[in-house]
Amino acid sequence: MPSIAVVQGASRGIGLQFCRTLLQRTEVNVIATCRCPDQALDLNCLYKEHKERLNVMKMDVTQEDAIKETAEMVEQQFKKVDLLINCAAMLHPSGRGETSLRDVSFEGVQATLATNTIGPLLMAKYFSPMLSKGSGSFGLHSSNKKETHSGILVNMSARVGSISDNGLGGWYSYRMSKSALNMATRNLSIELRRRSKGKVICIALHPGTVNTDLSRPYHRNVPKEKLFSTLHSVECMMAVISKLTLMDSGKYFAFDGTKIPF
Ligand SMILES: NC(=O)c1ccc[n+]([C@@H]2O[C@H](COP(=O)([O-])OP(=O)(O)OC[C@H]3O[C@@H](n4cnc5c(N)ncnc54)[C@H](OP(=O)(O)O)[C@@H]3O)[C@@H](O)[C@H]2O)c1
After folding, report:
1. C-alpha–C-alpha distance, residues 13 and 205, integer Å
2. Which residue has a Cα nearest atom 44 of ligand 1?
3. Residue with CA at minimum distance from ligand 1 atom 26
């Protein structure tokens, strides 16, 4: 049975690169979910190259019914999941983080939390039974034979979600959404490790500052060497993921494997 990786939020940016890297560097079957497959041109090109190992499924992560339906389809076709990467997020519906309380709105906070926090948590709800059946191997994973873990759940977080690291303020919605996602990750690591069989590893992972649409309005403030390509960021993160053990579950890592304080 081939290993199965699900990349949620795969139409562009880091999610798309995860699909590309997994297909090019491993033997896994990739399930790429996105809300508008017809408009995801780069993902469609990738599909043409890897038809036999790439499945594209339409799913909006703010729609619980759509998550449930997708999980049922994956269960029917593949039975298990070895790696789930929750990637989809927004900075804010306006495209810019709030710089002061004046910019905060009910709709802005609600929409950001729906995509960045509630979506990944509901993904865990519907996909964790399949992660429990996963072997935890996806080609790059150097599994430690002494421990038995099953699938790996990666919640794409951000350093700005760290409460103790917050010295600048601003970006209320985005920061709150990632802090809450980190809490959800820690909770998940506890609940999904209690099982006698099928212990799932859950981590929160910061990709660095990456050259994508999400961070584009702020690129001019980032030193060139600190603005990563999606390829570099994903290669670094794959190296982190490939070394994970059960001891790492519930932790919050940066792209270079260092731990970020909550
Ligand atoms: N870029 C950075 O510097 C940076 C830094 C720290 C953390 N991160 C995190 O890394 C992850 C990936 O970000 P990125 O930089 O790749 O961003 P991006 O290029 O803006 O891509 C965002 C992705 O999220 C998807 N998405 C948004 N709302 C969705 C919804 N309701 N349902 C399904 N998909 C939805 C988008 O799909 P559509 O194409 O349909 O809009 C797109 O695929 C995010 O979790 C982000 O917070 C990024």
Report:
1. 15
2. 89
3. 88
